[in-house]
Design brief:
Elements: E1 12-18, E2 20-21, E3 33-34, H1 41-58, E4 64-71, H2 79-92, E5 95-105, H3 109-112, H4 115-121, E6 125-131, H5 135-140, H6 147-160, E7 163-170, H7 177-190, E8 194-199, H8 207-213, H9 222-238, E9 248-250, H10 257-263, E10 267-271, E11 276-281, E12 284-289, H11 301-306, E13 323-326
Parallel strand pairs: 1-4, 1-10, 2-3, 4-5, 5-6, 6-7, 7-8
Antiparallel strand pairs: 8-9, 11-12, 12-13
């Protein structure tokens, strides 16, 4: 594994959480929500801008080295919304000329058509949630795209962005090291400089957890999971994509810089519903967390009149909703990003 403790200057990252998806994957326990009604993106952009302003007041005089749009599915946003959020970041902190700006995307044809717009909005790196290169596995994982559609989206990303990545889930039920090696070799042939490879984890309170408890979903045992992990390291190293942390592989120098901010214990602001951050305030490291619910139920008009001196109960992300607590550098990390 590559050394994560190089003597780079400390970076400052901004994580933006877009909490909406077209559907909820059965293995996912992230703060993501399905809304069948149209999302008021302009309203969310204003809420993000307010939260960015409040966070910048706590930690001024930072230079942003990375911005990461995660989710949820941020590629469901219109490019104009993404651009407005990047502009809001730039109004409160200077953005480094070489800043890495990543957006997670679903590899569907509809979202891939937005890639040009995202590039013009300021995104310079995309990470695609491919998850598998097998249609049967994709269906089992609850994904809405086919393997061919995913590869076409990867090709579009390659033509628009200098930097792109995609991720796969392995240690799937019934998967063998031999089958995984073949799928992974196909993936490394399509990858440019980076791959994210996650072993399937059965998370509490997910549909997969219920199936697992009922004996209807059986992931590989420990010995097979270890063999799958060893296969991952071997195939990726042979393709020039060694691991630089547990789940991410890159050509040397092409690591996700935002991901390295987490692993090196640098500062990052967490913006949006349920986002976490780590900020140095008055000489102490603080963990931050925001309100998870993207939209609260609007009060009745009568109740609103009775509580007119209170803040609007309908705000998605309020500047004062960010909770602070002290955190040591050994505190829990966020999930690895792509």
């Amino acid at each position: 594994m590559q050394n994560l403790d190089r003597g780079d200057a400390p970076g400052f990252g901004v994580y933006i959480h877009w909490p909406f998806c077209l559907s909820k994957c059965p293995y996912c326990d992230f703060n993501s929500h399905v809304r069948h009604a149209a999302i008021d993106e302009a309203r969310f952009a204003r809420a993000f801008a307010a939260e960015i302003a409040a966070t910048a007041a706590r930690v001024p005089r930072r230079t942003v080295s990375t911005i990461f749009f995660g989710g949820g599915t941020p590629s469901l946003m219109q490019p104009a919304t993404v651009g407005a959020i990047i502009d809001a970041v730039g109004r409160h902190w200077p953005i480094a000329p070489d800043a890495e700006v990543t957006l997670e995307a679903n590899p569907t044809s509809v979202e891939a058509r937005r890639f040009h717009g995202f590039r013009l909005a300021g995104v310079n790196r995309v990470s695609l949630g491919v998850q598998a290169l097998d249609d049967g596995a994709l269906k089992a994982l609850g994904r809405l795209h086919s393997a061919q559609e995913a590869l076409e989206a990867v090709a579009i990303a390659r033509s628009i962005f200098e930097r792109y990545s995609f991720d796969l889930i392995y240690a799937r039920p019934g998967q063998t090291p031999q089958a995984w090696a073949g799928e992974l070799k196909r993936a490394t042939a399509e990858a440019g400089e980076h791959l994210s490879l996650y072993q399937l984890t059965i998370e509490q309170d997910t549909p997969f957890a219920a199936l697992h408890a009922a004996g209807k979903l059986v992931p590989p045992g420990d010995d097979t999971a270890r063999a799958l992990y060893d296969t991952t390291q071997s195939v990726c190293a042979s393709a020039g994509l060694p691991a630089y942390e547990i789940s991410n592989h890159a050509r040397p120098g092409a690591e996700c810089r935002h991901n390295l901010i987490y692993w090196r214990g640098h500062e990052y602001a967490g913006i949006g519903p349920g986002a976490h951050g780590r900020l140095d305030i008055a000489g102490e490291r603080h963990a931050t967390a925001t309100e998870k619910e993207p939209q609260r139920r609007a009060p009745s008009r009568a109740a609103a009149r009775a509580r007119r001196d209170r803040d609007d109960d309908e705000r998605q992300t309020a500047p004062d909703a960010c909770r602070l607590s002290r955190a040591g550098r050994g505190g829990r990390r966020p999930r690895s990003l792509r």
